[in-house]
Amino acid sequence: MAIKDTPEEWTVTATTTPFTGNKTSVRTDTVVMPDGSTVTRDYQVHPGSVAVLALDDEGRVLVLRQYRHPVRQKLWEIPAGLLDIPGENPLHAAQRELYEEAHVKAADWRVLTDVYTTPGGCDEAVRIFLARGLSEAEGERFEVSEEEADMELARVPHDELVRLVLAGELHNNCLVVGVLALTAAQGGEGLDALRPAGAPWPARPFEA
């Protein structure tokens, strides 16, 4: 048996949207189970996201710290943001987020990994990019607001981030997945063997 996630869709006999927010909504589906019974499943509908593990020439990862209200914590994270435009090329979105949050650009982009953040309760899909060849972006810095106005930036050695993740000191999903995926890639076929930045993404199809 091949160990690979595969598409499948069970029959939905009814669906409602009891809540619609600014960026996401909540959907309630009545789903037919394999034995013929039906159950109700509530889940968040999400446009999808991108995240960027930006690695500089000294082996440091660009991280930022900002307040996350649902968990009542300031979390260290990697630059990330929503796919605001349906069908948007995720690479373009990632480049925009790296510029807006860190005022940095990158010469080399690869797909590090793709994940569903909470598949039991949300359909959010995230593509995590690896960005290398970092340099300061040109022009004025992007004007931030709300939680981002209080954001802190740092560059932390990759090995130190791995240690902090395994010690339970860092909890952001994209940071944890990205840092450990980078470790696996470095210990495997190498970073140049990662998928190209424009690799297909069935979870959020886009035009190149």
Automatic annotation (TrEMBL):
Top-level enzyme category: hydrolase
Keywords noted in UniProt: Hydrolase
GO molecular function: hydrolase activity
InterPro entries assigned: NUDIX_hydrolase-like_dom_sf (IPR015797), NUDIX_hydrolase_dom (IPR000086)
CDD domains: NUDIX_ADPRase_Rv1700 (cd24158)
PROSITE patterns the record matches: NUDIX
Keyword Hydrolase on entry: yes
Enzyme nomenclature, EC number: 3.6.-.-
Domain called Nudix hydrolase: residue spans: 44-178
Name of the protein: NUDIX hydrolase
